[in-house]
Amino acid sequence: MSGIEIRKVTANIGAHVFGVDLSKPLDEETATALRDALNAHKALVFNEVNLDDEGQQAFARHFGELTTAHPTVSAVDGAPNVLPVDSEGGRAANNWHTDVTFVLNPPQASTLRSLTIPPYGGETLIADSAAAYRDLPQPLRRLADDLWAEHTNDYDYAVPEESLDEDQVARRAQFTSIKYRTVHPVVRVHPLTGERGLFIGGFAQRIVGLSRGESRKLLDILQSYVTRPENLLRHRWSENQLVLFDNRITQHYAVDNYDGLPRRLHRVTVAGDVPVGVEGKESYSIEGDASHYTAVAA
Q: CA quadruple 104, 109, 115, 119: dihedral positive or negative?
Protein backbone atom coordinates (compact mmCIF):
# COMPACT_ATOMS: atom_id res chain seq x y z
CA MET A 1 0.00 0.00 0.00
CA SER A 2 3.07 2.24 -0.06
CA GLY A 3 2.60 5.47 -1.96
CA ILE A 4 -1.15 5.85 -1.50
CA GLU A 5 -2.13 9.45 -0.81
CA ILE A 6 -5.56 10.83 0.04
CA ARG A 7 -6.18 14.58 -0.18
CA LYS A 8 -9.38 16.15 1.06
CA VAL A 9 -11.33 18.32 -1.37
CA THR A 10 -13.70 20.00 1.11
CA ALA A 11 -14.14 19.97 4.86
CA ASN A 12 -17.25 17.77 4.72
CA ILE A 13 -17.03 15.62 1.61
CA GLY A 14 -14.68 14.36 -1.05
CA ALA A 15 -11.05 13.31 -1.46
CA HIS A 16 -8.66 12.74 -4.35
CA VAL A 17 -6.79 9.44 -4.24
CA PHE A 18 -3.25 9.15 -5.64
CA GLY A 19 -0.81 6.28 -5.85
CA VAL A 20 -3.30 3.49 -6.65
CA ASP A 21 -3.41 1.78 -10.05
CA LEU A 22 -7.04 0.71 -10.46
CA SER A 23 -6.23 -1.22 -13.64
CA LYS A 24 -4.46 -3.86 -11.52
CA PRO A 25 -5.96 -6.12 -8.84
CA LEU A 26 -5.85 -4.43 -5.44
CA ASP A 27 -4.20 -6.15 -2.52
CA GLU A 28 -6.35 -6.43 0.57
CA GLU A 29 -4.42 -3.74 2.45
CA THR A 30 -5.09 -1.20 -0.31
CA ALA A 31 -8.73 -2.26 -0.68
CA THR A 32 -9.22 -1.84 3.08
CA ALA A 33 -7.60 1.59 2.97
CA LEU A 34 -9.98 2.67 0.19
CA ARG A 35 -13.01 1.33 2.08
CA ASP A 36 -11.88 3.30 5.15
CA ALA A 37 -11.36 6.41 3.01
CA LEU A 38 -14.85 6.05 1.55
CA ASN A 39 -16.32 5.86 5.05
CA ALA A 40 -14.41 8.99 6.03
CA HIS A 41 -14.85 11.14 2.91
CA LYS A 42 -18.00 9.65 1.27
CA ALA A 43 -16.75 10.38 -2.25
CA LEU A 44 -13.38 9.48 -3.78
CA VAL A 45 -11.94 10.77 -7.08
CA PHE A 46 -9.37 8.81 -9.10
CA ASN A 47 -7.54 10.30 -12.10
CA GLU A 48 -6.11 8.57 -15.20
CA VAL A 49 -7.71 5.27 -14.29
CA ASN A 50 -7.23 3.52 -17.68
CA LEU A 51 -10.20 1.23 -17.14
CA ASP A 52 -12.64 -0.45 -19.50
CA ASP A 53 -16.02 -1.80 -18.41
CA GLU A 54 -14.49 -5.02 -17.11
CA GLY A 55 -11.92 -3.10 -15.10
CA GLN A 56 -14.56 -0.81 -13.61
CA GLN A 57 -16.58 -3.82 -12.52
CA ALA A 58 -13.52 -5.53 -11.06
CA PHE A 59 -12.72 -2.42 -9.02
CA ALA A 60 -16.31 -2.05 -7.78
CA ARG A 61 -16.32 -5.69 -6.62
CA HIS A 62 -13.76 -4.79 -3.95
CA PHE A 63 -16.70 -3.15 -2.16
CA GLY A 64 -19.23 -5.97 -2.56
CA GLU A 65 -21.41 -7.84 -5.02
CA LEU A 66 -22.62 -5.86 -8.03
CA THR A 67 -26.17 -5.05 -8.99
CA THR A 68 -27.30 -5.31 -12.58
CA ALA A 69 -27.34 -1.97 -14.40
CA HIS A 70 -30.80 -0.77 -13.36
CA PRO A 71 -34.22 -2.21 -12.46
CA THR A 72 -35.85 -0.87 -15.65
CA VAL A 73 -33.26 0.88 -17.86
CA SER A 74 -31.16 -1.07 -20.39
CA ALA A 75 -27.50 -1.87 -19.74
CA VAL A 76 -24.52 -1.39 -22.02
CA ASP A 77 -24.57 -4.11 -24.72
CA GLY A 78 -22.74 -7.16 -23.45
CA ALA A 79 -22.24 -5.69 -19.96
CA PRO A 80 -25.37 -6.31 -17.84
CA ASN A 81 -23.86 -4.61 -14.77
CA VAL A 82 -22.99 -1.35 -16.57
CA LEU A 83 -25.44 1.52 -17.03
CA PRO A 84 -24.71 4.11 -19.75
CA VAL A 85 -25.20 7.66 -18.48
CA ASP A 86 -25.38 9.38 -21.83
CA SER A 87 -26.46 12.87 -22.86
CA GLU A 88 -27.88 11.34 -26.04
CA GLY A 89 -30.10 9.09 -23.95
CA GLY A 90 -31.89 11.73 -21.94
CA ARG A 91 -29.47 14.50 -20.94
CA ALA A 92 -28.46 15.03 -17.35
CA ALA A 93 -30.11 13.57 -14.26
CA ASN A 94 -30.49 17.14 -13.10
CA ASN A 95 -32.37 16.48 -9.90
CA TRP A 96 -31.05 15.63 -6.47
CA HIS A 97 -31.30 11.92 -5.75
CA THR A 98 -29.67 8.88 -4.21
CA ASP A 99 -29.41 6.02 -6.70
CA VAL A 100 -32.40 3.66 -6.92
CA THR A 101 -33.93 4.37 -3.51
CA PHE A 102 -37.29 3.14 -4.78
CA VAL A 103 -36.17 -0.49 -4.21
CA LEU A 104 -35.88 -2.20 -0.84
CA ASN A 105 -32.06 -2.37 -0.72
CA PRO A 106 -30.58 0.45 -2.81
CA PRO A 107 -26.92 0.25 -3.85
CA GLN A 108 -24.39 0.84 -1.10
CA ALA A 109 -21.97 2.51 -3.49
CA SER A 110 -21.86 3.85 -7.04
CA THR A 111 -18.93 4.24 -9.43
CA LEU A 112 -19.01 6.65 -12.36
CA ARG A 113 -16.31 6.52 -15.06
CA SER A 114 -15.89 9.28 -17.62
CA LEU A 115 -15.71 8.38 -21.31
CA THR A 116 -16.74 11.52 -23.19
CA ILE A 117 -16.68 14.92 -21.50
CA PRO A 118 -18.01 18.22 -22.90
CA PRO A 119 -15.55 21.11 -23.20
CA TYR A 120 -17.44 22.98 -20.48
CA GLY A 121 -20.05 22.19 -17.86
CA GLY A 122 -21.36 18.75 -17.05
CA GLU A 123 -20.23 18.69 -13.42
CA THR A 124 -21.55 16.21 -10.89
CA LEU A 125 -22.52 17.57 -7.47
CA ILE A 126 -22.35 15.17 -4.52
CA ALA A 127 -23.89 16.11 -1.17
CA ASP A 128 -23.06 14.85 2.32
CA SER A 129 -26.37 13.90 3.90
CA ALA A 130 -24.71 13.21 7.28
CA ALA A 131 -23.47 16.80 7.45
CA ALA A 132 -27.00 17.86 6.51
CA TYR A 133 -28.40 15.90 9.45
CA ARG A 134 -25.86 17.44 11.81
CA ASP A 135 -26.87 20.90 10.54
CA LEU A 136 -30.51 20.41 11.49
CA PRO A 137 -31.74 22.42 14.48
CA GLN A 138 -32.56 20.10 17.36
CA PRO A 139 -36.37 20.30 16.94
CA LEU A 140 -36.10 19.39 13.25
CA ARG A 141 -33.65 16.61 14.03
CA ARG A 142 -36.02 15.06 16.57
CA LEU A 143 -38.87 15.29 14.07
CA ALA A 144 -36.84 13.76 11.23
CA ASP A 145 -35.74 10.84 13.44
CA ASP A 146 -39.35 9.64 13.62
CA LEU A 147 -40.32 10.11 9.96
CA TRP A 148 -40.61 7.54 7.18
CA ALA A 149 -40.97 8.35 3.50
CA GLU A 150 -42.35 6.51 0.50
CA HIS A 151 -39.91 6.38 -2.44
CA THR A 152 -41.15 5.61 -5.94
CA ASN A 153 -39.98 5.69 -9.56
CA ASP A 154 -43.53 6.65 -10.61
CA TYR A 155 -43.89 10.24 -9.53
CA ASP A 156 -45.16 13.60 -10.71
CA TYR A 157 -42.59 15.01 -13.13
CA ALA A 158 -41.99 18.74 -13.38
CA VAL A 159 -42.29 18.50 -17.18
CA PRO A 160 -45.74 17.35 -18.40
CA GLU A 161 -45.75 14.49 -20.88
CA GLU A 162 -47.44 16.52 -23.61
CA SER A 163 -44.39 18.80 -23.80
CA LEU A 164 -41.98 15.90 -24.40
CA ASP A 165 -40.84 14.52 -27.74
CA GLU A 166 -41.41 10.89 -28.73
CA ASP A 167 -38.03 9.66 -27.48
CA GLN A 168 -38.47 11.39 -24.10
CA VAL A 169 -41.92 9.84 -23.67
CA ALA A 170 -40.46 6.40 -24.48
CA ARG A 171 -37.63 6.85 -21.94
CA ARG A 172 -40.10 7.87 -19.25
CA ALA A 173 -42.27 4.84 -20.04
CA GLN A 174 -39.23 2.55 -19.78
CA PHE A 175 -38.18 4.07 -16.46
CA THR A 176 -41.62 3.33 -14.96
CA SER A 177 -42.24 0.04 -16.80
CA ILE A 178 -42.11 -1.70 -13.41
CA LYS A 179 -43.56 0.46 -10.65
CA TYR A 180 -41.75 0.47 -7.33
CA ARG A 181 -42.90 1.84 -3.98
CA THR A 182 -40.73 1.41 -0.90
CA VAL A 183 -40.83 3.02 2.54
CA HIS A 184 -37.49 4.09 4.02
CA PRO A 185 -36.55 5.95 7.19
CA VAL A 186 -36.01 9.67 6.61
CA VAL A 187 -32.96 9.33 8.86
CA ARG A 188 -30.86 6.33 7.93
CA VAL A 189 -28.18 4.92 10.22
CA HIS A 190 -25.04 4.01 8.26
CA PRO A 191 -24.34 0.30 8.88
CA LEU A 192 -20.56 0.75 9.17
CA THR A 193 -19.96 4.17 10.71
CA GLY A 194 -23.17 4.60 12.72
CA GLU A 195 -23.59 8.11 11.26
CA ARG A 196 -27.09 9.38 10.74
CA GLY A 197 -27.94 10.88 7.36
CA LEU A 198 -31.03 12.32 5.66
CA PHE A 199 -32.15 9.56 3.31
CA ILE A 200 -34.49 11.45 1.02
CA GLY A 201 -33.88 12.95 -2.46
CA GLY A 202 -35.95 13.00 -5.63
CA PHE A 203 -37.56 9.57 -5.32
CA ALA A 204 -38.94 10.40 -1.84
CA GLN A 205 -42.44 11.61 -2.63
CA ARG A 206 -44.51 11.34 0.51
CA ILE A 207 -44.04 11.26 4.27
CA VAL A 208 -45.97 8.38 5.79
CA GLY A 209 -49.01 9.76 7.60
CA LEU A 210 -48.99 13.15 5.84
CA SER A 211 -50.71 14.44 2.72
CA ARG A 212 -48.68 14.97 -0.44
CA GLY A 213 -48.83 18.72 0.05
CA GLU A 214 -47.66 18.53 3.65
CA SER A 215 -45.01 16.01 2.67
CA ARG A 216 -43.62 18.26 -0.05
CA LYS A 217 -43.20 21.20 2.30
CA LEU A 218 -41.45 19.14 4.94
CA LEU A 219 -39.23 17.31 2.45
CA ASP A 220 -38.24 20.63 0.89
CA ILE A 221 -37.17 21.97 4.29
CA LEU A 222 -35.04 18.89 5.00
CA GLN A 223 -33.62 18.83 1.48
CA SER A 224 -32.47 22.44 1.81
CA TYR A 225 -29.96 21.27 4.44
CA VAL A 226 -28.61 18.55 2.13
CA THR A 227 -27.87 21.01 -0.66
CA ARG A 228 -26.17 23.71 1.38
CA PRO A 229 -22.98 24.74 -0.45
CA GLU A 230 -20.84 23.74 2.53
CA ASN A 231 -22.08 20.15 2.18
CA LEU A 232 -21.27 19.77 -1.54
CA LEU A 233 -18.47 18.40 -3.67
CA ARG A 234 -18.64 19.95 -7.15
CA HIS A 235 -16.71 17.61 -9.42
CA ARG A 236 -15.59 18.93 -12.79
CA TRP A 237 -14.96 15.90 -14.96
CA SER A 238 -11.90 15.12 -17.01
CA GLU A 239 -11.69 12.14 -19.32
CA ASN A 240 -10.50 8.87 -17.83
CA GLN A 241 -11.60 9.62 -14.26
CA LEU A 242 -13.54 7.47 -11.83
CA VAL A 243 -15.64 8.76 -8.94
CA LEU A 244 -16.76 6.40 -6.18
CA PHE A 245 -19.38 7.58 -3.70
CA ASP A 246 -21.21 6.05 -0.75
CA ASN A 247 -24.81 5.89 -1.92
CA ARG A 248 -26.06 5.29 1.64
CA ILE A 249 -25.16 8.72 2.92
CA THR A 250 -24.93 11.02 -0.11
CA GLN A 251 -27.09 12.52 -2.83
CA HIS A 252 -25.93 13.66 -6.26
CA TYR A 253 -26.99 15.90 -9.13
CA ALA A 254 -25.75 16.04 -12.74
CA VAL A 255 -25.60 19.68 -13.80
CA ASP A 256 -27.21 20.25 -17.21
CA ASN A 257 -25.07 23.21 -18.29
CA TYR A 258 -23.27 21.94 -21.39
CA ASP A 259 -25.66 22.83 -24.24
CA GLY A 260 -26.48 19.21 -25.04
CA LEU A 261 -22.93 18.43 -26.14
CA PRO A 262 -21.79 14.78 -25.94
CA ARG A 263 -21.30 13.57 -22.38
CA ARG A 264 -21.03 9.88 -21.49
CA LEU A 265 -20.25 8.14 -18.23
CA HIS A 266 -20.59 4.47 -17.29
CA ARG A 267 -22.07 3.57 -13.92
CA VAL A 268 -21.52 0.39 -11.92
CA THR A 269 -23.23 0.01 -8.56
CA VAL A 270 -22.51 -2.21 -5.57
CA ALA A 271 -25.39 -4.08 -3.94
CA GLY A 272 -26.52 -2.71 -0.60
CA ASP A 273 -28.38 -3.71 2.51
CA VAL A 274 -31.88 -2.81 3.67
CA PRO A 275 -31.81 0.66 5.31
CA VAL A 276 -32.34 0.90 9.06
CA GLY A 277 -33.76 3.85 10.95
CA VAL A 278 -32.90 5.38 14.30
CA GLU A 279 -35.06 2.89 16.23
CA GLY A 280 -33.57 -0.12 14.44
CA LYS A 281 -36.55 -0.74 12.15
CA GLU A 282 -35.93 -1.75 8.54
CA SER A 283 -37.38 -0.36 5.33
CA TYR A 284 -40.24 -2.26 3.72
CA SER A 285 -41.50 -2.73 0.19
CA ILE A 286 -45.04 -1.87 -0.92
CA GLU A 287 -44.88 -2.60 -4.64
CA GLY A 288 -42.40 -3.95 -7.19
CA ASP A 289 -40.03 -6.93 -7.33
CA ALA A 290 -36.40 -5.88 -7.84
CA SER A 291 -34.81 -9.32 -7.41
CA HIS A 292 -33.54 -9.20 -11.02
CA TYR A 293 -31.64 -6.05 -10.09
CA THR A 294 -30.28 -6.84 -6.64
CA ALA A 295 -30.81 -9.67 -4.19
CA VAL A 296 -31.87 -8.95 -0.62
CA ALA A 297 -29.61 -10.66 1.88
CA ALA A 298 -31.42 -13.15 4.09
A: positive
